[in-house]
Structure formats: C-alpha cells, structure tokens
Amino acid sequence: MNRYYKKKILSYYLIGLIIPILCFFFKLQVIDHQKYKKLSGKNSIRSIEIKAPRGIIYDRNNIPLVDNFPTYTLKVIPIDIIDKKSKNLLNNFNIDLLESIIGIDKESFIEKVMKKNKKLEKFSPVTIKKFIKFEDKIVIEERIEDFPGILFSTIPARKYVSRVNLSHALGYLGLLDKEKKIEFNHKDSLYRYSTGDVYGRSGIEKTYEYKLRGKNGIEYRLVDSRGIDRGEVDQKDIINVINGPPLITTIDLEIQSIAEKSLAGKSGAIICMNPSNGEILAFISSPDYDLKPFIGPVPQEQWNEWNNDSRTPLLNRVISGEYPPGSVFKLVTAALLLRENKQRIEYECNGEHQVGVSQFKRCWNSQGHGKINLADALKFSCNIYFYKAVENITLEDLASISMEFNFGSKVGIDLISEKSGLIPTPQYMKKKYEFRDKNGVWQTNWARKGTKANIGIGQGDVLSTPLQVINLINIIANKGYSYTPHLIIDKKNIQKKTINLNSSTWEFLNKAMWNVVNGKGGTGKNAKIVDFGTDIRGKTGTAQNPHGEDHSWFSGYITARNLNKMSIVVMVEHGGRGSGPASFIAKDIFSYFSSINKD
Amino acid sequence: MNFIYRIFNFQNTFRLDLKVIGPILLLCIIGLIALKSASLDTLGQHLVFYNQIRWILIGSIIFFVIQFIRSNLFYEFAYIMYLILLILLFITLFMPKINGSSRWILIGGMQFQPSEFGKIIFIIAISRFITDYRDSFSSHQMIISCAFLTLFPLVFILQQPDFGTGIVYLLPILPMLYWADVDTKKIVLYIFPIISMLAQQNLIVFYIWMFLLIIILLLISKKMIHVIINFILNSAFGLLAPYAWKYGLHEYHQNRIIELLNPGNSPLGAGYQILQSKVAIGSGGILGKGLGEGTQSYLRFLPIKDSDFILSVISEEMGFLCIIIITIIFLSFIYFNIDFAQRLFNKFQSTSIIGFCSLLFFHMIINMSMVVGLFPVIGLPFPFISYGGSFMITCFIIIGIMNNTANNDL
Predict the structure, then answer these.
(1) Is residue B289 helix, strand or coil?
(2) Which member of A30, A33, A47 has the closest CB to residue B272?
(3) What is d(CA A338, CA A510) in angstroms, rounded to the nearest whole number?
(4) B339 with A192: Cβ contact below 8 A
(5) Which residue, of A7, A126, B97, B262, has the fewest CB within 10 Å?
(6) Taking the CB of residue A101, how many other CB atoms lie within 10 A of it?
(7) Which residues from B are below 8 Å from A32, CB to CB?
(8) How far does CA A486 lie from the centroid of its chain?
C-alpha cells in the first residue's frame, strides 16, 4: 500500500465521518426549519423549576397533620412589559388593577423591574410576589390581556390540616437564601437545594429535613411574547419531580387535642409518652403559635411580634423551659434514701423546721404531719421529712443520683434547642454561695442556710425541663430504664438507658406514687379516675418561684386495663398547688386514655 | 549563542503557503464575525471580540517565530518534552479546582493548561516513537506500545477530570498508526473489544454487532483459529463489562463517568442548553437570519456560547450555507495537509502532520456533533472559530509547524 493510496482512503474516511453530521444540520435547518422557527424569536423556551412538595406528616394513626397545597409565584419578564424607547411600563400593562388584586406596592414593583431591565437579565423572569392564593391567580388569569409578560409558577406550601396546633413539635419553615443554600448543599443531602426552596427551621421539620425533602424537577415550556404559556415543549429532557416521602409521627391526635384544649389560655407544658418505647403521644407548650392562617413562610413582622410577646409563645417549654421541679423531685431524693437504706427512719413534722441559726423552713401543712415515714412523706408531700432526711445524706450523693436520672443533662429528644436544666453540685454551690464577709473571712457554710435542704425537695437551685421529669417517670414506670423520647416512628437511634437500683426501690416508689393518687388524703387525688382495673400513679409538685405564684406540677403514669402505659407530665406556670390545675388536666387525659385502652 | 543555534535556523525560507494559511484566515474571519455579532450588547464592549483578535495576533507572532525553528528540533526533543508534559500533568492534580476540575497550573496570577499544549507534544512524541521503531516492531508490538505511551497522560487527564481532552489524545493515534504502515486489520482488532463493551448496553445492538463481528473476522483473518479466539475475546469483553463496572470501579468513579457521559442529568440542565442550541440552529434555515439578528443564540446559554456553542450562533445568523462553507474550507485545509504528508520524505514529519490533521479534525466533528446533540457536551472548541486563548495558540503552533515543514522539507 503506498502513501498515495492511503491519502485517498483517509480523505474518503474524513468525508464519510462528516457527512452524517452535515445531514443532521440539514435536517435541523432545512427539514425542521419551520418547527424551530416557531420555537425561536419572540416565543421562547423557558426552563421552569418545579418545586417538590415536602413529605406529608401524619400522626400515629395516619391522620395527616401537615399537608401541602399549591400556591403561586407571580413573575414578570422585564422586556415584555417595558417600552423600548421611553423606558417606561407599557401602556397596556394595568398596574393599578394588579395592585388592587394582590396588593403589591406600585413603586417598588416598577423599581424592581427597572433594576433588572438590562443586558441579559431582562429576558429572565423577575419574581414579584410569592405565595399567591389560587383565587387571586384565577382573577389575574381571567384578565391576562391586561398583564402581558406575567408568568405563574407553582410552589407547594405547607397546610396545617388537623385541629391541633402542635406547633412546637412540628416546627416551621424558612426560605433558603444564597448563603444558606451553600451550607445545605455541603451536607450529604440527597437532592440539591436551590434558592427559594423551603427548609425546616425548627421542630420535626428541621430534624427530619432530609427525610421530608423531595427532588425539584425541571420542565421546558413555550412562552409567547405576551407571557402566555403555550405548553410543554420537550417531553424527553424534563426532570421529574420526586415528592418528599411521608413521615409518620408518634403523636396521637386525640390526646394532643384534649391536652391542647386543657392548656388553652394558660402557660405551661404537657408531654405524654409511652414509657415502654419512648414514643411521644402529645407535646404541648402553651401558649403556642398558630401557623394555619399563613400561606407560605410566616412574615418577619409576625415573628417580631411573637418574639416580643411577654407570654413567650416561641419558647418551647417542654424542652427549653427550665423550672424548679418542686416536690416531684422528692422521688429522686427518696430513691437515694432507699439506696442508702434510710427509708425506715421516721421524723417528726410539726409544721416547721429550723435550719441554721435563724432560718425556718415550713411544711405546706402548717399543722404538721406528726411522726411520719418515707412512704407517707411522699404521699402527703411532707417537706419537713425531707429537710430532716437530707441532713443525713451528702450533696455529692444527691447530685450524682440526680444525674443518673438524667437531670442536669440533655435527654436526647429529636428536636433542637433542648436545655439541660441544672443540678447543683458542691463545686457549683461553692462558687455561687461562698463569699468574704465584712472582715474578709470566707463564709463557706452555705449548707447551713438551708440550700441543701431546698435541693432535696426540688427547690432552690434545681432546674429541670418537663422532658427530664417525664424521663424520671418513665424510669420508675419501667422499673429501672427508659428510652430516648422521640417523635417519629423509627426504631433507629433509640437508646435504652438503665439505672442500677434495687428492684425493691422501684416497688417502693411505685407503691408510694400509687398512694399519692389513690391513698386517703394523698395530694394527687384529683387525678384519680374511677375505672376498675386502671391504675394511676403520680406525684404532685408545687414549685415556688421568684416570678409569682407557684408552678403547678403533676407527673405520673397510667396503666390501663390492657396493661398499656402512658406517662404524663403537666406543668402549669403559676397555676398554684400541684393538687390543683395540673392534677385536673392529667385526669382528663387519663380518662381518655383508659377509655381507648379497655381491653 | 550556541543554544540559540540549536533551536533556530535563520537560513529557513519564510514563505506563507496559501494552502495552509488561506483556509485558516477564512475560518478566523468567520469566527470573528460570529463573535462580533454574538457578543453584541451582551458583555457591553465586545470584550470577547477584542480578546479574540489579541489571541489571533499573538498566535500569528508565534507562527512567525516557529518558521525559523530548526525542523529537526521537534524530533530531537520529542521524548524530553513528553516527560516534561507528564510531570506538568501530574502537578495539575495538586492544583486547586476551577469549575470543578484541576486542569490548570497557577503561577502567580497566570493560568497555564499543560494538557492543551500537550496535545502537540504528545503527537510529536508518538510520531517519533512510531518512526523509530516501525521497522523493528511487529504491528501488535507497535499498537500495544503506543497504547502504553497514551495511557500515562490519559490517566492524569481523566483524573483532572477532562473527558474532552482525553478523547482527543486517544483518537489521532489511529490514523497515525495507519499512516505508518501498521497493519489495518490488526488495528481494527484492537478497536473491536471497545465496541463490544459499548454495544453490550443494549441486547439487540449487541447481537447485531456480534453477527457483524463474525463476518468481519472471517473476511480479514486467514486462520479459523484467529476468528474463534477473537470472537471469544470480544464476547468476553462485552459480557464482562457490566461486572467490571460493578466490581472494578468505586461508586465515586462510576458516578463521575455517568456524570461525564450524561451532562443532561445535572440539575443545571445541560439538556436545556442542547435544546436552545437546536432551536438556534434550526431557526437559522438555509440562509440564516442575518448578522446580529439572532434572537435565540444570544439570549439564553450565554456562558459558553463564545467557545463551545459558537457554531449555533453561526448557524442561526448565517444559515446552513455557512456551515457547508466552513466544512468545505476545513476539509480542504485537512486535505492539503494530508497531501503534504504524502509528499514528505521524512517519515517523522509525515506522521506528525497526519497526527495534527486528525487532532484538528476530531475537534471539529466532536464540536459539530455536540451542538446538534449527537454527542455529550464535553467542552471541545471548534478550531480557529471558537473563542479561547490557549486553544487558539495551540492551533497556531500546529499550523506554524505545518508551514515550516512545507517550506523547508518538501
């Protein structure tokens, strides 16, 4: 084969390769010319991102709590509505009518459009208003001739469909801006985020952001010069929307609803759980905020209003509210006494007790309880017994057993901003109470001032969240262990925490709590329901606080006839005695629970 | 002084060969017209247009300088340059990523893309290797050792990752081997397994290919045993490819390859670009809409229209006719150079010119296929027309070498 021959072969080869491609150009430019001509020019293809709806959130019985509904975003294309010569709005664009329909500000509208009326940006749609209702969209579309260059895109927004608020557990959404977008895409999210997407800012929406999120799609639509949609263009290049997967929570809508009603108008918190698996049945922090009236994310003014509200509706009292637990804490002190084998010692209660030189501590019953043992001291919630008993135990022991019961540290619920409360250790007390007196001598006898005695009955420096209290109840109900409280039905990430104490300790505490509710003269008798075969155990608390009247606590659990258990903590801020409002609320919820758990 | 004489030879004749320069001038002019029209009112002051003129001027100076280079120089330094190229490509892997790939070496404020100029070095090195060992190696040895020489730069380039450049390193070897009298049938035997691996994605295609394969093998092989061995080999390649894909590659690499081959899957929507490009080309018709009248091309897919999609601008504004003209100009340029290569006595120069021709040719057809949606968008520019500094200079170096050879060694 000589080179001359090879040159020929190579040349044919080149021509053979180029001809099919030229044929393709021929097909596009000559055969299909008319088709593409129609697509070009003033008509243009726009890629439209379709936002994926987030997953629907259900309660434990598959009743939807949060659904989606379509809202619309109004956009305009600057080049379509601006006169090329005068650089003003076209005369046939009826801005006044638009203003009256959706209430946009005329000046800011024109300013926004003019700002984008340059170079390339004038061809791409400018967002005018987000989250427009379907009804308003219809009105605008009926008069589309008045609004050349207008486009709508659909955005799914959250719809709170159930009769409960549940706002602190569900959480709310925010709009993703540019900086946040980068942050979100850095994490191992399944689907990319783009600006204008919504994301969870608190509650379940935040914790389970990646479980709830879907994948945005892309569609190509032919839009004519008047901005009127002429339908989809190319079916094969579209990217399909993938809806966010549904999420089933552990919330029981009925219990939640009863609990929400009972706290209406009051400040406080209720949490109901199944102690045998850590599922949260009801979660109320009152006052809460209602997201139902808002289409799309809540406007900033509303946030400011809520933030400045003196009743602090944005505070999640269940997990971020730190309160003195009051007499409920006596259960922990009692557990320590039992461990130290000091339960048999009896003390005399005559209504008051002297601590230190001049301080007197009083029992709530000024008559005194007489000679009293631990079981009765719990039943009647006698303070004097515990003041005296605490003198025989060290603060180290009390602090360490409290911490074993998860006081002073986070319980680990699947929500953000949980607080850890406070358990005063000797180091803490030293730091806080030791001081130099006038003569420059260190005063170290903080214990003599009755601070330790206060801690023993859950007052003074002790702070706890309602979540920690219900965790205590769960441990007692399970006789020695508890599960991480959680809000969605998912077995992963649930840990079992065990406390090693004698089984007799648990029996004793359970019996004492039974007596509190069912015994004659027990402080929790208002929570008792008359239903044969149903056992209720509990402990009341009346927590003194510097802000006003006492906080009313009731914590306990019910064992229904079919042996299902539900633990509950009710805390009413400034509600007075624990045997009062909190117990009545607990009773309502108990009676519903026993009615659905007959057999 | 000695050093300068090693590189330059001032006795070289300087003559512009119209067969080399003429078509290039026409292409550059068409490119500039398209850029002028496309950059109109998009980037304000025709920045792209003036930059392109600057690059063409720099290219011309380099072209002029190359005319006085001693023509044996490329042969002598081929291997050394190849090694330097490998080192530079290796360095790029440690450079910060720009737009998701680390193709550039950054020194001070300067950017330098070794794989771009490496195209020339690579072809020169392969040409020297082929001419050096053509007589002592058998066809099989030749093909395998060339494959090895390609492998080293290719691995670095794919690691950057730069799929487009990788392809244009690979493809020109085939015509060069063919030109150097390596047995065509044997070259073909090495390509078949690759086709088998690609064909296995669709069962029917795979059956048809296997059927064709048997016929071709029967036609080109003398011994039956060769036919059988080759057939088994090809079937094995086809059948084992999915397993090799599944178990041989990390998920990370799989994703990267999928991403490279299907840019349309990206949420940024390369499918949208292709669609817009097709609309622009289709709406141009036979004669085009006229210069500056393109409504489509300059609106939407701006970021790369100056480089990779310049052809859609041309199609829209100057029509199918201009595409035909560009093709004819380009093919005639390639033909003239193959003609030189045929007449050259020096085997090294002849082979390297074939390499350069095919390099430019593959750039051209891949770019053309890209804009009409026949090929994934892998970012290969159209020679002499697309906007872009390094590639323009690479092209000018290539024609410089061609012109030098045509003047002094023909």
Answers:
(1) coil
(2) A47
(3) 13
(4) no
(5) B97
(6) 18
(7) 282
(8) 11
Most A CBs within 10 A among B272, B277, B279, hence the mutation to make, goes to B279
- Report the alpha-carbon distance of residue A413 to residue A171 in Å, rounded: 14
Selected residue of A1, A4, A6 to mutate for chain B interface (largest B Cβ count, 10 A):
A6
CB contact under 8 A, B41 and A18: no
Q: Answer yes or no: pTM beyond 0.80.
A: no
Nearest to B323 by CA among B279, B371, B377, B362: B371
Sheet strands side by side (includes A44-50):
A44-50, A217-223, A229-232
Q: Bridge-partner residues for A535, per DSSP? A: A559
Alpha helices of A40-160 — where are they, by DSSP H? 78-81, 95-102, 106-116, 134-142
d(CA B51, CA A284): 66
Q: Hey, is B162 helix, strand or coil?
A: coil
Q: What is the largest CA-CA distance in chain B?
A: 68
pLDDT tens-digit series, residues A488-542:
987 777 889 999 888 899 999 999 999 999 988 888 888 888 888 889 999 999 8
For the stretch A415-461, pLDDT in tens is 988 999 999 888 888 787 777 777 777 766 665 567 778 888 888 88
Per-residue pLDDT tens over the stretch A124-173: 677 888 888 888 888 888 877 777 777 777 888 888 988 888 999 998 88
Task: State residue B336 phi and psi, 5-degree precision.
Answer: -55, -40
Contact A69, A156 (CB under 8 A): yes
Q: Are B355 and B127 in contact (CB under 8 A)?
A: yes
Give the amino acid at B337. Answer: N
Q: What is the 3-state secondary structure (H, E, C) of A216-259?
A: CEEEEEEECCCCCEEEECCCCCCECCECCCCEEECCCHHHHHHH
E-assigned strand segments in A459-579: 481-483, 496-498, 535-545, 548-559, 565-572
Task: Kindly give, in sequence order, each residue whose CB lies less than 8 Å from that of residue A83, ignoring residues fewer than 6 positions away.
Answer: A89, A90, A91
